[in-house]
Amino acid sequence: MGDSGEIARFYDRCSDLMRELLDGLAAAPDRPRPFPAVEDAIGWPRRRIASVLGGAWHMRSTEFGGRRPYRFLDEHHSRSGRWEAWMDARQAKAVRRARAEQRYSRRTARKERV
Predict the structure, then answer these.
(1) Which of 5, 13, 77, 87 has its CA 20 to 30 A from that of 64?
(2) d(CA 110, CA 114)
(3) Which CATH number does the domain housing residue 20 bear?
(4) Beta partners for 33?
(5) Rounded CA gap, 22 and 96, in Å?
(6) Residue 31 sits in which domain range?
(7) d(Cα 57, Cα 63) in Å, to the nearest integer?
(8) Going edge to edge, which strands form the sheet with 84-86?
(9) Coil, strand, or helix at residue 85?
């Protein structure tokens, strides 16, 4: 997934945990990391990534044709010999923009309620 509008829509539609994962990957663009390293950086327990990705599978498949705003290397193609995840700089920029827009929208909605 490379279109910034599609990435923003994915970010808007996914769970809070998936957004947390996307934010974590966006913090280190173009840097494939084994799942445990990503989990450590986010402050998650082991194997949470697998659970979060599994939870997002249905939405990703039905709404986005299986596309995802991040990338994988399997254990046969990664330096670590383990599954690695990352996003490229363009994907990371789109995620950071979507996060900022979402935070702005939430602040604006709170102000309107007051």
Answers:
(1) 77
(2) 7
(3) 1.10.10
(4) 85
(5) 9
(6) 4-113
(7) 10
(8) 33-34, 84-86, 71-73
(9) strand
Q: What distance in Å separates the CA atoms of residue 22 and residue 101, rounded to the nearest whole number?
A: 15
List C-alpha distances in Å: 48 to 25, 51, 112: 14, 5, 36
Which one-letter amino acid corresponds to residue 10? F
Identity (one letter) of the amino acid at 83? Answer: W
Q: What digits encode the pLDDT tens for the residues 13-58?
A: 999 999 999 999 999 999 999 999 999 999 999 999 999 999 999 9
Structurally, how many domains does the chain consist of? Answer: 1
Is residue 31 packed enough to be buried (19+ CB in 10 Å), middle (13-18) or exposed (0-12)? Answer: middle
pLDDT digits (tens, 9 = 90+) for 68-112: 999 999 999 999 999 999 999 999 999 999 999 988 777 676 666
Q: What is the pTM of this model?
A: 0.88
